[in-house]
Amino acid sequence: MSLSRRKFLIRSVQCIVACSVLPGVTSCHGLTRAEEERGTGYEALVKSIGRERADIIWYASFAPSSHNVQPWTVTVKSPDRWMIGSAEDRWLNEIDPKNRELLLSVGAFLENMVIVANAYGFQAKIRLRTQTPFDPELLSIEFKNAERVEYPLQRLLERRTLRSGFKSDDLDPEDVLFITGGDENCFYYPSFSKQAAWLDEATVAASRQQADRMNVQEELARWIRWSDSDARKYRNGLTPESMDITGLAGWYVRNFYGADDVLNRDFRNASVEHARKQVKESGGWIVITSTNDTPESLLEAGRRFERLFLRAKDRSIAIHPMSQVLQEQPWAEKAGAEMRLTRPLQLLLRVGYPRDYPSPVSLRMPLDAFTKIST
Length: 375
Prior knowledge:
Helices cover 45% and strands 14% of the residues. With 375 residues, it is α+β, with helices and mostly antiparallel strands. The protein has three domains: 1-27, no CATH class; 33-158 and 362-373, NADH Oxidase, CATH 3.40.109; 173-227 and 246-352, 3-Layer(aba) Sandwich (NADH Oxidase). It has a five-stranded mixed sheet with strand order 3-4-2-1-9, with helices on one face. The protein has a four-stranded antiparallel sheet with strand order 5-6-8-7. The termini are far apart.
């Protein structure tokens, strides 16, 4: 028996003993959202702008983002006038050098803001403040009193990216219509279609190319929070639970994995094989397009994406953004023609009916980490 194999078995036994005998002392599951609730900064924000306005920011923070970097910032100029921007230290310069995906994430964040504002009786007026995605201030939002618009806000908290456990059944046309809202920029390709087959193959090939790009892997490594201590410290990035690494395997990687393991050839090969298994397990793809590639169009595409995502659980539809094809050449250049679409492709979503729909696990930064009161 090899030394590494022996060590793994010893650690596995340690885990079983710890989980069985000391459930209150050791952690056989990772850090969860509920352990922090609204987090630091919430009550101070309530004192400054009121509970409903503080809730708008808190609910908005549950928007999706690449690597869960949560790139948005909020500067409160006055209780009813805010600036929304991004933090440069949360940009993904390797896989998103043009900040295209950043704008999509901020758009999803903005959509959540508008939904919650309407539910609390505010009308949100949005103004674009830049023509470049690299400006730290992207847009302003002003609130005025209006009639309340009923909306189940729990949807924002329950939205979850699912990466495994998809059934192979194609989506029912009525379910597609429900989650897309009939939006002309959303296109569904069933698993048996030529377009879906091309996306399956291209996704694996693009994933393999990314696995060979050391700069991309180093960036990914910086955003994986293997240990509970790092997860608690940063409350962003990818945890083992959010990557569907649970149980004994989850305990093992939380205690013995680090950034160097992401750069290991075996780990990179395994990630490609995992992508191959994922694309074989789905009910097809949804592609989201935009009018053009301007910041305004990208923000709107992000809002469109979030509206779709928030409706998905109501029809028990799993969504897994897999946009490697749009991040790597030559596939990014070919994708539009292969999908027979003339508008720019912005998001590729692997979709399907899940065998289970577990609770969300991705962590959220405390409000004072991305919100400041302007003096």
